[in-house]
Description:
Residues 373-593 form the TRUD domain. Keywords: Isomerase, tRNA processing. By secondary structure, the protein is of the alpha+beta class. It has helices spanning 46-49, 65-70, 79-95, 97-103, 166-169, 174-185, 201-214, 272-283, 313-318, 359-372, 390-398, 402-410, 420-429, 432-437, 444-455, 460-465, 469-495, 555-566, 615-619, 648-656, 662-665; strands at residues 125-128, 135-140, 192-196, 218-225, 228-235, 260-268, 290-292, 301-309, 326-334, 345-356, 374-375, 504-505, 525-526, 540-544, 586-589, 591-592, 595-604, 633-643. Among the domains are: 111-136 and 355-376 and 592-670, no CATH class; 172-235, Ribosomal Protein S8, Chain: A, domain 1 (2-Layer Sandwich); 250-343, Alpha-Beta Plaits (2-Layer Sandwich), CATH 3.30.70; 390-467, Hypothetical Protein Yqey, Chain: A, domain1; 473-508 and 524-589, 2-Layer Sandwich (Pseudouridine synthase). Residues 1-104, 159-167 and 239-247 have low confidence and may be disordered.
Amino acid sequence: MSDSPNNFPPAKKQKLTTNDGAIGVDGDAHEVILSTGNGFPTESEHCVKQPVISTESTVELISTVAEHENTTQNSTLTCKEKQNDGLQLRTDDIQDQSNKIHLGTNVSELDVGITEFLCNHPGISAIIKQRYSDFIVHEVSLTGETIHLTSTELPSEEPEDKVTNDETVSVLDREVQEQLTELATSEDKTRSVEIPAGEDKQMRQNIHKAVKTAFPMFETQTDVRDGQKVIVVNYKKSGGKDSRQSSCPEWPANKSKLPYCRFVLYKENKDTMDVISLMAKFLKVKEGLFQYAGTKDRRAKTSQEITAYKIHPKKLSGLNNVLRNIKLGNFRYVDKPLKLGELKGNHFTIVLRNTVGSDEDLQRGLNSLKSKGFINYFGMQRFGTTSVPTYEIGRALLKGEWADAIDLILCPRTSNGSSERFRHVWSQTKDPLQTLEATDSRCSIERSLLRALQKSPKNFQGAIQALPRNTRMMYVHSYQSLVWNTMVSKRIQTYGLQPVEGDIVLPSHSGQDLRDEEPKKVQPVVLNESNLSLYSIYDIVLPLPGHDIVYPANEVKTWYEMYLSKDGFDINNLQRKNKDYSLPGAYRTMVVRPADLEWRTFLYDDYTIPLALSDLDRLENISEPKSCPGGKLCAVRLSFTLPSSCYATMALREVLKTDTSPSHQITLNVT
């Protein structure tokens, strides 16, 4: 029992960290440096690091990272031992993660289930994202359009719903039209116009329709004045379904049926949510007025679509003059907001710098990626970039261990950043007020948590609920991702790259957009002897655990049961009273092939010279990069498209054959 007044668990010493940053959800844009280091895996590592190209089981590394670094020979099991006991040992290792935090070690790919490759070609050495300009991301819409910023001009204010139907307009005589026009231009919004309506019901309906068509800012109602029926025309009142109208009184009256401004957001080295927060701050509106299909990561140049409810394009355009490394454009009026997950994928342009290796190995690796693809692992940024993995927090939330989750969010990391001061105050005092006073404005998540604790020190669940829902979902999705990664590795180790009876696929009409944030309302097809030959490894899906999904009808389901049981979960009882933690589950394709993969090599001397153009570069007519004859360094520029929720770093990992965790890679960048 802790001595602190709030009964929090004792603070845990944290493992070393390499860099801080926001957590990517959809796509890759965090600094990751890849290299083959001193060569390919040693013989004792081959069962883990080499590809699985048959149905034979392979060894899974089960030691902790510290053990692996000290004695590789002792950290592996024979294939027979692994086949018999690998999963149990693997889950024991994950269960001991809190001890690893205490020991100060770092999370590696092995810790999050990333162990396999598709093919056994040699890797090459390279640096990913030496500069954030080496990583360019364009959102791909549901219609397949690659989103680009091509203009910063304001949209036309011409009416979208011009009254062109003479029959409709003729319902209103000239005098009534003049009265309505005068009312529309009047500053007195309390005035009204009365239109004689008569006893003909159809005529009254035509008048109502004509007024609303020609003057959409008005509302109409039938009334009786001096014994005669009239139609009373007033300005629409604020409140009810259109209560947000007053937030933008300058919204064009002829755009009342198009209450959203849709635009392209171009950003450099900033998180999507940070940009939305900045825009809301400068415009003095709530962040909830903005909607997006997916977040794009910080260390990149990215283009994506955003919708804003009744925020005039002129106001949005004005932000181009005050916000650095941000441009808004391609404005247009639309009738519906974007929703999370409404994207087909992302198009990546990535520069691999300081590549070392033979051209033959490079071509083999890239051609293999193009034709065979990669294992669709959740990338390292899914699990956080600080020394506390997000899946630890997610596991605590799913178990209802609210105090533990709070402590994991607030406890010290071992970086030297200025934000560490409040974490040490927390670890020493567990006092919300003292800790809050030590924070700065950048710690928005932690400040929300601490304010809630300050108001109600014993209400741990209430404090967690004070966090933005997207943040809470990020934590629990991280745990789901950990389970999925471990299961797909085990599936490939055991059965190889061929469909087997009991595997599941989704009906072809369900499409490829397998969002892990929302369940797919489809019934999977279970493979059997009669339909096995109809499918390939590219059709096979594995579930993210939940209460509303179908598990494979083979040994794989047992693995899920064992894994979840080790973490204290019952596979048949994953529903929770709180809907946020009652995850329905989803399906994710095991192996993915990138679309439109192309590459080009460059020679260069100066790593600060960009080798790929962004949308802003093209708007400013920057010339296409050229190779430097006689350059001492080599770079490879790749471009490809991935479905939503696929990670570009996992595609590159298949080519480069190395651990992509920042903690392992950061030491390899000596430039």
